[in-house]
Inverse folding.
């Protein structure tokens, strides 16, 4: 299979186009475990494709479907990518746990004020995320695919963080 992908750039591009959604899904699932930033997800996506293209010769129909193979390689590479980033810079990806100031913010309604500044779609995604929904489930209510949902959630939470910082909270 590598010969076909390496020999013809058009064939490789078609292959990538066909499976890009599946690879995005795998990378985003790994990213959710680390609460990664969109730019880190994009880097992990590129690294996942590099790994897939280098390991495609290891695929065998005896061991499962091509989709399953691609998803597994992409997910594992993304997990490794995010773990390396956390190991190098512990605060770069992992968010600090909520502080006592967050508890006070809820009591004083500041966090609700910040949440009220979000648009309806962002509010829906943040609410679903807070309820434990992940990946595809987050965007179902607002009609977004997994990759766009991840970016939308990140931007919404970042807006709430900035709002809380403006109010004087250490978040």
């Amino acid at each position: 299979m590598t010969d076909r992908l390496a020999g013809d750039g058009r064939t490789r591009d078609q292959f990538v186009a066909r499976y890009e959604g599946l690879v995005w899904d795998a990378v985003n699932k790994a990213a959710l475990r680390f609460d990664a930033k969109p730019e880190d997800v994009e880097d992990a996506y590129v690294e996942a494709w590099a790994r897939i293209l280098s390991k495609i010769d290891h695929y065998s129909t005896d061991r499962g479907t091509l989709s399953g193979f691609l998803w597994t390689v992409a997910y594992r590479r993304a997990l490794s990518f995010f773990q390396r980033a956390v190991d190098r810079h512990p605060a770069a990806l992992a968010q600090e746990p909520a502080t006592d100031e967050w508890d006070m913010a809820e009591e004083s309604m500041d966090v609700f004020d910040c949440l009220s500044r979000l648009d309806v779609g962002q509010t829906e995604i943040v609410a679903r995320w807070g309820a434990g929904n992940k990946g595809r489930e987050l965007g179902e209510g607002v009609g977004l695919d997994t990759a766009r949902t991840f970016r939308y959630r990140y931007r919404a939470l970042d807006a709430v963080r900035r709002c809380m910082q403006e109010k004087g909270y250490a978040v």
Q: What stands out?
A: DSSP finds ten helices and no strands in the chain. Residues 100-166 form a domain with the Arc Repressor Mutant, subunit A fold (CATH 1.10.10.10). Confidence is low (pLDDT under 50) at residues 92-99.
